[in-house]
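User: I'm new to structure prediction. If I give you an amino acid sequence, what do you actually give back? Let's try with this one:
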Amino acid sequence: MNEKFEKILIYAGTTEGRTLAEKLAERGIKSDVSVATEYGNQVMEESEFIHVLQGRLDLEQMMRLYEKNNYDLIIDATHPFAQIVSENIKDSVEKYNKTAKNHIMLYRLARNVSGSIIDDSADSSPDKNRTSIYEYENSAECAKALVNIKGNILLTTGSKELGVFCHYEELKKRLVVRVLPGMESLSLCYENGLEGRQIIAMQGPFTREMNTGIIHQYNIKNIVTKESGKTGGVDEKIAAAEQTGTRIFMIKKPSKKIYDTEYSLEEILKLILPKSIINVVLAGIGTGDKRGITENVKNTIANADLIFGAKRMIESAYGFISNNAKVYQYYLAKDIIPVINENAGRDIKAVVLFSGDTGFFSGAKNLRKQMEKLPGVNVSMMPGISSVQALAARTGESWEDAVIISTHGIEREIWMPKLRFHALHSKKIIFITSGGGDIMQIAELVSDIPDIKMDIGYQLSYDDEKMISLRPQELTGSTVFKPGLYVGMIRNEKAVPRKLAPSFKDDDFIRDKVPMTKEEIRHLSICKLKLVENSVVFDIGCGTGSISIEAAAMSPDIKVYAIETNPDAVNLTKQNCKKQNLANVKVIENLAPSGFDNLPVPTNVFIGGSKGNLREIIQSLADKKSGMRIVINAVSLETIAEVSNIADDFNISDFEAVCINVGKAKKIGGYHLMQANNPVYIFSFDLQAE
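Assistant: Good question. You get back a string of structure tokens that encode the predicted 3D arrangement of the chain. For your 690 residues, that looks like this:
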């Protein structure tokens, strides 16, 4: 069908109704959503595409609403047990359509109440708990039956029919009711004489574990539920009843049929969403010269009605563009999407041109995500030849074994440590730049590394293309690169293999009189930190910076914040970072936990010295409400005792305490004698998010 609906009203009384409004909003389709209560308003979040109407409506009020807003589609997504509401909706639309000029289409969104996770035939072993399920046509029959059933009752049928169950005084005393946390629901509880201890005001969904916990806490023997399907949480209630041996009292779905046809959420979306008639291709045009554009992309450009791209992309496509095509020098989503929306409903083809390849450092990925949300739009991608492929061809090198780094639009603090690291440890790096200025910065960054060679490609595929091979030391401050497109390759045949484990020796660090975590303790502590790519590490009480350097040397993508209050130690850490050529360590002179709020949230924390602030440090980290791995080194009995208390007072897991006694051989005369260091306790644990 796929009619184009301009004004949509959703009567939402179920999770499916809310989901429908959200799905339409994702595709840029607006809807009014009618909810009965203040609580319904709270859970149905308004947005640019969702307008919430609160309040119960009778038949006449519904018709006035239709007349005021000129709806062309109404969807009844109310609860399957709210039959009176559904009857009013159906009658109001039929009555309105008899006299109104505009015709309103009405669909019923039905909840699937069939099926269960409980399979009675799956396991009939004697030791498996089996629960009894009793079915009733309505609440009145169920309440009457419960009068003669012993044990506490968990009532999960909502607040509207509380009076039916509270009618029986003896039954009311045994009720524990679970209702929505809205004022209307709570008011009905109190009006029916229920006490606070009998009321659980919570919003679902409720897991089997939550249901089981309530059953145990309130000594529940009987659960009353409606046959409201998987979305209504029936499966989880039955599963909890199976586990605890609790009886289930099921109020069956009303048998009266109001609508001849009912649709699932997926079927409703197919009926509402327009057919995809705008085909958008995100196409890579290669390195720039039109001779490098693939035949597929040329044909796509030639058949396009709308063409988007930056000026250079459009110029490369001249000669293939149809005279009837509209051309826009746009490359940002905020400019392109409005034009696409203006053409909604038309059978058109559009192409957005990108430099190089759409899958290689391209804006095509983000644009595709945004365009896929648009109604009636099909999005596809066509690759092009990237500058990396062109450079590899010019140099005769392969590129699949190269480390690829982009400096284009990337902050120096991010790309420089990474490039420096790989220049030391990788035989081949390919870099993409923002211009000739980046070439000079890269050359300066690697000029002290022996045997480095650079190949620089300028304006590859254009008539003024040029290849330059040199050593970084040959570039001076007076070298000037012409404006244009640059890509380059660094080769280091004598690259030092990358370390895969902590391996610095104590003698690798400048020491002076500042304490340092000793080699074996340092290596084990780093292993206990469980670092991964892109870890954010706090080294608190960094001393000489040995832990910071071990961590930073593992990967250029690891960011380390070395925090120290001793000025001499701060200076030593900076010297050691410079000695090891590490740019991914930031040294901060401060007394932890002061200043934590100005730093990123860490994923891993090493505490080698706390200046008596250990509990305050852990509390400050816990306040960030983000899980993190923590390792603490302790040598004093006081610190050991404090860590033990912390383990009891905070939400931690995977706690481990290791005492390390290290003895190292030292040559004295003609003998090698073992000399013992003081024992060190290494505590490690995961600090859980609150």
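You can read the tokens as a compact description of the fold. Here is one thing that stands out. The domain at 275-385 is CATH 3.40.1010.10 (Cobalt-precorrin-4 Transmethylase; domain 1).
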